Please model this.
Amino acid sequence: MKVIETIKSEKPTLSFEVFPPKTSDNFESVRLAAEKIADLKPSYMSVTYGAGGGTSDFTVDLAEDLIKQKGVTPLTHLTCVSSDERKIEAELKKIKSKGIENILALRGDIPEDVDKSAMKYKYAYELIEKIKSFDSDFCIGGACYPESHPESENGEKDIENLKIKVESGCEFLTTQMFFDNNILYNFIMRLMKKGVDVPVVAGIMPVTNARQIKRIISISKNALPQRFVRIVDRFSDDPQALKQAGIAYATEQIIDLYANGISSVHVYSMNNAEVAEKIKNNLTEIIK
Ligand code: FAD
Model:
């Protein structure tokens, strides 16, 4: 099933994300966690590629398992970083041979020791062109940043670059996490003004532990609403309370998104089946 068909359907969608293990020793435990999330019958599941220092070796294997064992549609991520033309072609052949139809094409974060000018694909749109020329049947998505990408000159320039990405064959966009829905609503208005008219999937991160909070604050430009900051201040030294409050906050964000006409939500569930299940259970009457 193509992800674009799912997100263009009348029903609201809810998808989850998993990341592959760094070593083969951990493949089994990650596979089990991914399968538990798959049992929640999400609209589709995305599998990251080398994100946050992780690996790319098991992305396709994990995605294949989701189709074969659980019948869940996978969205495999693929990045320009650490990929030359041969590696990309080999990955695309593997993806195709496993019956995977959907790719989230990304640039990846460029490590400090990598010479950007030597990269074959410098931007996600170039990778999208490559995927399209390899097989025009793949359904391709890309990333977008409601608070603009940290390297972009400004929000307007970032949207102009997004337009290039969409024109190169990107059929939908998944957002970076955000904690204030007004930021997304404002971003969508700006996309519409610039003629970027592909579906936007809202990326929601349930913040359920103190480590995540530190990481969010250190790497992103995310605006943190007072309501969110108060939860963190009040509960960050009580892990169970923080988890419960983080799930409630994410659930409220999701309900508000659906209520305001955003019909596709992607949860950065980070292999955490318990969190994914609690969020899904909070929405049983909303997404039937
Ligand atoms: P691009 O779209 O190439 O944009 C990168 C920067 O270049 C932006 O500042 C943009 O404005 C600028 N730009 C784009 N096109 C042009 C152009 N034509 N001319 C000039 N400037 C341009 N990382 C991983 O390593 N693995 C993953 O699995 C992964 N999954 C992700 C999933 C989502 C939903 C999101 C939001 C991010 C994910 N990331 C992942 C992180 C992502 O790779 C980084 O944020 C990266 O820095 C940017 O990737 P991109 O695909 O958005 O890049």
